[in-house]
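Priority: medium. Attachment 1 of 2:
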């Protein structure tokens, strides 16, 4: 009689074991299917956000570059305007000097007055050239900054794609660990 009792107990343990397996199976299906899928969806969303962030940074960099290019154009225009102002000032100065020489009875077509005027003209031309060169150098520097901003924008897009690939790889590794694939 003892062996029959053991058989009943074994059957009872077997039924209890099946109930636990059904619960465990439900838990595993929900746990294994749901959370890795959520992780995969989140990694795709994260990848999309990384790409969008890269493009947003590029838009900002391009706007900064456009502002810098406009500033460079203004610096060139300011340099040319400054040179014109210097030229006009020299014309007025020369006219005053000519009037002063003539009123003093000095011949202005030869000799010292001519040398003085030629020297003043030369110095004024140098001032004009310096103003233009300085303005153009500043404009070139600002234009270079604009190009750097554009390069930063392109780099931000590339970095966004790199982050997207990393997010997708992390998501794929989570799916690989969950044994769904």
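Attachment 2 of 2:
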């Amino acid at each position: 009689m003892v062996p029959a009792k053991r058989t009943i107990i074994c059957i009872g343990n077997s039924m209890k074991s099946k109930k636990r397996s059904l619960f465990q199976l439900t838990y595993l299906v929900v746990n294994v299917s749901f959370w890795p899928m959520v992780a995969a969806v989140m990694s795709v969303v994260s990848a999309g956000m990384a790409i969008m962030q890269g493009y947003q940074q590029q838009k900002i960099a391009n706007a900064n570059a456009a502002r810098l290019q406009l500033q460079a154009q203004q610096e060139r225009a300011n340099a040319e305007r400054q040179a014109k102002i210097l030229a006009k000032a020299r014309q007025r100065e020369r006219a005053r000097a000519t009037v002063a020489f003539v009123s003093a009875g000095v011949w202005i077509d030869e000799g010292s007055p001519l040398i003085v005027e030629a020297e003043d003209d030369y110095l004024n031309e140098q001032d004009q050239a310096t103003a233009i060169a300085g303005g153009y150098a500043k404009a070139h520097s600002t234009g270079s900054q604009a190009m750097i901003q554009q390069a930063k924008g392109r780099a931000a897009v590339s970095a966004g794609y790199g982050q997207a690939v990393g997010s997708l790889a992390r998501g794929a590794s989570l799916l690989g660990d969950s044994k769904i694939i």
